[in-house]
Amino acid sequence: MATKSSEPETQQNPLLEGLMIRRRPEPCVLTIFGASGDLTRRKIFPSLYSLAFRDLLPEQFAIVGVARSEQSSEEFVRAMEAAVREFGRDEFREDVWERLAKVTRYVATDVADDRGEDRVAKTLSGLDEKLGTRGNRIYYFAVPPEAMPIIVEELGERRRAEGWVRLIIEKPFGYDLASARDLNELLARHFTEEEIFRIDHYLGKDTVQNLIALRFANGIFEPIWNRQFVDHVQITVAESLGIEGRAAFYEKAGAIRDVFQNHMLQLVALTAMEPPINFTAEAVRNEKLKVLMSIATPDPRLVVRGQYGQGFIDGEQVPGYREESGVAPDSNTETFVAARLLVDNWRWADTPFYVRTGKRLPRRETTIAIQFKRVPHPLFEQTDLRPNALVVHIQPNEGVSLAIGAKVPGEGMRVRTVHMDFLYGGAFRTGIPEAYERLLLDAMLGDTTLFTRADEIEEQWALVDVITAAWARERANFPNYAAGTWGPKAAQELIEWHR
Amino acid sequence: MAPLIHLDEWQDECATVSEVEQALIGLRLKRGFEGKRNVRTSVLTHLAWVPQEWQEAATETLAGLAERHPSRTLLLFPEPDAEPGLAARAFLECYETPGSDRHLCNEVAELRLRGARAEAPASIVLPLLLPDLPVFLRWRGRPDFDSAVFRQLVEVVDRLVVDSAEWQDIPSAYSELAEVFASVDVSDIAWRRTLPWRRALAQAWPKLPDRLTGPPAETTLVAGWLASRAGVEVAVERADELPVGDDRAPSDLLSEELDVYAGDPVYEEAVRIAGRL
Predict the structure, then answer these.
(1) Beta carbons within 8 Å of B149's beta carbon, 6+ residues apart
(2) A354, β-bridge pairs
(3) pTM of the model
(4) Which pLDDT tens digit goes with each residue over A228-237?
(5) Measured between CB atoms, which of B67, B230, B264 is closest to A4?
(6) β-strand A230-238 against A365-372: which pairing, if any?
(7) What is the distance of C-alpha B161 from the center of its chain?
(8) Between A and B, how many residue pairs show a Cβ–Cβ distance under 8 A?
(9) Domain range summary for chain B, segments of one domain joined by +
(10) Angle of the B265-274 helix axis to the B216-230 helix axis, nearest 10
């Protein structure tokens, strides 16, 4: 062999430069608590399949589903195969699925009892021995918040010296600031912050990350991304669906805990944050935290809650929230929140961020609209010139559009607003990956950039607590918007008042 | 790959460049069909210099490429022995975008440069380049690096894409190619084809083979790479297949090259040494 023996073995490999060798995650076992739930079926397994399809999973890898429902590993694998066929974004290939199926196990157990956790531990050790997964563990908590503390305690106490441990924790992370703090403290007793991956799947969306690219990979936006040029920002997270059988969860959470506390505030943070010094987990999260800390406590009159009544979606009549199965007939849970937020810092002082989220709105749409100030002097006859707006379409129709005024051909000087569109699917034809694919892979690689840090979560809850405390003092007059409309009149008035 | 629809062809056996430009603008303004809007998105202008013997292969390679890199494609067919003139055909290539109310359309112009026009291609393509977007030139076959035609086209592009596996005079051609690096960034599809092979060798480092066996271009490039990166000289032996293959279609390999915007010093150094092997 032509070995260059004169060089020490430790010398950096000179052949690696430019080879774009992707870092492959180290061997590990992914354990999913709450594996019989919808999230495992709709998101986790289809994403694991997509990762396997692209050969991005570790060479030694296994999956253990844990839940209370009695079923065998074979039954679980069959159910997951059906889920991948139904919800996967890639074509179904037997050989790819087979690679996952043969390393998938199911443990029917209640982890609340010690013997249950024993069964899980035994399965994991068996897989280490058989597959060489080296004691490396990822635990995915797809369980309700009340089930988490006992599992965290168990895992913390049984932590072994061998291998690394990472916890992926689904939302909702707590119910309020106090419970979130409790959970953070419990986690911190057993695990370091680098081992905790709090999922907000919006951060895994390519189009959300594109907001960072739009702002910081282009020289033209950042100079005008401030109070001098921006009149206001509107962020909408709208769903046309109702609660889809999730009454037990939704009755307790409502729109403010389901979306506002996490996705909405993260979108505000990414829109408003200062440029981080680099694109590492700590640098990005430090900047987001500063924004969350800067959000002023909103005047209760500038926060609007709503609940949908009967109405029409896609031409079909749909029931009101209180008529949904499992919902109390006098429920006071909000299905809509709108607010005028102020980010009190040098860049954004006095620039309102109008945010709204709700269920049973006319269409599914997540957008961030940056509305710029009007021209200072009306040069033309028209006085109703619309200001420029940059709209980031997170979903659907992923892309960016810029509204500009253009002269209408012909005599005179009439100006009409036209849109310049960048359509994601038009410029990049590779398909947009599911957010969970990116996040699962990042967790396997130990990269926490796109996950929420403990202090961010606590700031988010602190804001929510103030709002819910004001709400608790007064019973809402629900329902106050019809399904298929853009929420209560008071929400429209928030923005109209601004105009 | 989504179904391809050819739309609204325009052609003229005796055209001017401005007529071609007008035809492309006219096609862009077409409102759409089957109730869907046409949308043009471009990430680059793609020139292809296609001598007669490469026409069939060029068409195959380009099939589906525009879907991944929406672009304005200008296919240049030199016909120096024909009666002087410019024959042109322009059309839209449109793709369905599933779940959307739009067709994604690319503009294609085929330009037959007849007689003396084959000697002044830059003056023909310059007015047709999309402003402010990178221009890639795919040169089929072995360029005559000293020719005026080559020099003037390289002047107006950002990147030259060749496939040195199409050349007969390996390794001496690499010495000539190395001279071009000062004036334009170069991509070589043969180099892209060796990527899995180079990765395998890098992973085996520092244990390297004494002998490389494979097609001449790829093997010479890998030998040049080992010499430049690791100071290791290995023998080369001719064979039809690459030891670690890349079974992707030529259009996939070309597509990857179109994602590269900067020069590749590792490749350039490998070529400089390959020329001396």
Answers:
(1) B78, B118, B119, B121
(2) A234, A340
(3) 0.82
(4) 999 999 999 9
(5) B230
(6) antiparallel
(7) 4
(8) 74
(9) 1-157, 190-277
(10) 110
